[in-house]
Specification:
The chain has 387 residues and is of the alpha/beta class. It is built from 13 helices and 17 strands. Helix content is 35%, strand content 17%. Helix 3 crosses helix 13, helix 8 packs across helix 9 and helix 12 runs parallel beside helix 13.
Amino acid sequence: MSARVIALYLPQFHPIPENDQWWGKGFTEWTNVARAKPLFRKHDQPRIPADLGFYDLRMPEIREQQACLARDAGIEGFCYWHYWFGSGRRILERPFNEVLASGKPDFPFCLAWANHSWSSRTWQKSGKRAEILIEQRYECEPDYRSHFQAVLPAFRDPRYIRVDGKPLFVIYDVRAIPDARAFLQSWREAALANGLPGIHFVAYSESTSSWSISPEGEKKRVVPDPNMAADVYRSLLALGVDAIASSGKNRAEMLAKGRLARLIGIALHLAGLNRTQKPYAYRDIIRNLFVPEDAWENVYPMIIPQWDRSPRTGSCYDVYFGSTPELFRESVLEALSIIRRKKPEHQLILLRSWNEWAEGNYMEPDVTYGRGYVDALKSALTQPFRT
């Protein structure tokens, strides 16, 4: 069977003035990756890149090599994280702007709006008092129009990924937008006015949530439940998005440790008291990664090759151990079985991620497995589906 695998892509690996100011001259996420240390026996840290090295995304040659690797794996395109904090404030935009302006690599892409504030916890060890570095602001209609005009050249690019003929645009946290319906409607109208058939809005969401949304759009705190995916997805779809990018990460962790234990772990993490927490077994995570609702026509399941945020946090709080290309391949095959009855246009799978190295969440070759994860995905995607 065919599948549309789209890989989330972090454009962080190049120096910017803001990171120089906050963390020191020349800081990128490679800084955290290189200084990571093993926290338990057989902990695979630090992670060392192989084929592409400790690259700089200002180099077009690197971007071409990334596209070649992804294409060989069977990935349809990259979904670049896009930052817009309001009033035109942007960050990390250079790599994608150069891809757009140069026409290279000739590889499909789309955008995901990372609509969250940046705090000192973004790259800093947990437990320290968080300081807001850049605040995410929502400034209503005039800013909606400015934001749309900023991304319109990308939407018009022939490489831009489309679903049902419409440019695909992922939103990290739709719930955070004060009037999400107004934002979505504004962009849809702007798209039509600029000759586009609309926008295919996708809400990034965990299959469990600490929030519920009323039909009127009001939010309230709730205790997460492993069986609440249908309610979570319906509440987001009611806001006006077209589809859900379904992440089962939080649910899988809850089922692996137990709901109470995970809630206690989150509290300890926020207090900086999580040094003794045990990591998760990757095998346990992928066993509980998907939910029945991922088979809905307008839900796109998410696959995770590996996960280890200890380079950022300095703790085992957010670490999966025991990931291998073979186990990842099994998870991909399960995702393929979930989407097999959908229309070909909607057989989408989100891959988290292509190059989140400081989260230990990447596909790119490293010294441990080489091209193992690339080849595992390719093998799964080219295997005939067995009923």
